[in-house]
């Protein structure tokens, strides 16, 4: 199915060539290309921003900078004369990371600035830049902001941005076919970018690394980018820590830190170098697109399903992101339709399981007429205050009458929204009870919520 959608993308004349792949928790599981050799490198353009964010967080984790540092602490040559008002905040590193610095969207201009020299960049910053909003107040996609982060990395690390990313991320992660110019060692060579002109494909020259490499300068292959995306997604696995960048910092990258107010379909916003979409209360998709003269790229993955797509094409504005999105959405829908059992309950605290057993036994005692009290070692003080014992047992008797009493069947899990929460069913003669508990955040957690009701849907 995925191959057919990408082949249709090319058949519509979107680009001369494309490459794509699917990955899961075990790595790249399927790769295909058309119009180029296997393992060909493409420009990944703004997908580079995730590497910039990861490099910056590694310096933060070393204690060499703070995310709430004003950017002028490391880039003092930046003139702030263009701030909206005398009371404006100085943009911080975090504001730049989350696309909320107040700088305007600048794709067409910035896409042509990659090879800018350090001296020219210094001159641009010293002349001043214009802000369209108060820093820290709204989302606007700014490439200049990420170019500034590239300069922060250079100042703090004492190395060029390109060499720092290579040494800190690419080499230790084994991304041997990823690099900052067309000489990257990809087995299939490097795809040439194109644009449409007079009904034909016109090849475009490559631009070299420079002061704007941090916004989109990397080349990569399907295999390498899938490995990168899978490594980011693995931060939510157990024992996912890594010497390259901690699991905590990688999880931090994949949180919705700044809402994109232009998107109305579902909550969507920016993390650190990545977009985050809340597909549903229990489903999040992380992604980033890349567009450069002659190239289009996209990577996206489901955090819960650990299933993702990477895709490239070698044409300006080919919108390979739309096809990659359609592919992942279709795969996720297939998985949802194929699921014949309820979603598995996530790992619970041992105390939550123990409380389930104790509460089930207590309800059985109540059902048998033994109105045992609420033990303070099991229940927090609020439980008796929120609904006194006599009212709880009276409500239970009514519910039991409705389902013909409890039977000897085993409890079955219903759902959980986290380690301290669980809902389950107790079978009855003509229906079932739904029981729900939630534990306190104490060192020795106790039940703070106890709800019991007839499950009408299960009758």
Automatic annotation (TrEMBL):
Residues 3-332 form the Beta-lactamase-related domain. InterPro entries: AmpC-like, Beta-lactam-related, Beta-lactam/transpept-like. Pfam families: Beta-lactamase. This is Beta-lactamase-related domain-containing protein. It comes from Microterricola pindariensis. The lineage of its organism: Bacteria, Bacillati, Actinomycetota, Actinomycetes, Micrococcales.
